[in-house]
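subagent[fold] <- orchestrator: predict structure for attached chain, return tokens only, no commentary.
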Amino acid sequence: MQHSAFADSARLSCGLRCVLLLLAATLSNSVHAQIQRQHGAHVHGEATLNLALDASQLTLTLEAPGMSFAGFEHAPRDGGERKTLDDTIAALKAPAGWLVLPPAAGCKLDEAKVTPHGFGGTYTAEQGGDAHGAHSDFDAAYRFTCATPAALRALDLRLFERFPSLHKLRINLVLPERQDSVTLVPGDTRVTLSP
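subagent[fold] -> orchestrator:
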């Protein structure tokens, strides 16, 4: 019996297709990200985290206005603001400082990518940001491989502790058993993935 590419793709589970669509929409400087920056979804103090689990792969994408993480949205005006921006990028590149995964899951970070947009100066030239600095933001993507994904029953997000300008975190979940959305506010850090 011959298998066609169409038949093979039809066998993909909805979860995997959803993960692939989510990744295609948010992992890179896609048209979607450009539209987001130009037409809204830019609310100071808020951020969106997309979390997808497929087999042993855990993928997270994080999007936020510059104000939510750095506390400003213009080109750094002095050494203090430059340090704040550099520290913010470094903190986002090291998710172990704000993301606590269950040790039993055995998750290893494979990739972390952080892209600041619109902070002027070298950030504009390197990242294609807005030269006027009207709306600056951060896009970040993380990929983990987990040895025991069934142990990923919950995780703690300590973004509010690390970034005091953040007041609301919307989380979109694409999990093997469900697709859901939850919202966290300061003092609320735990996200339940499975019972």
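orchestrator: received. Logging for downstream: The two ends are 41 Å apart (CA to CA). The chain has one domain: 13-192.
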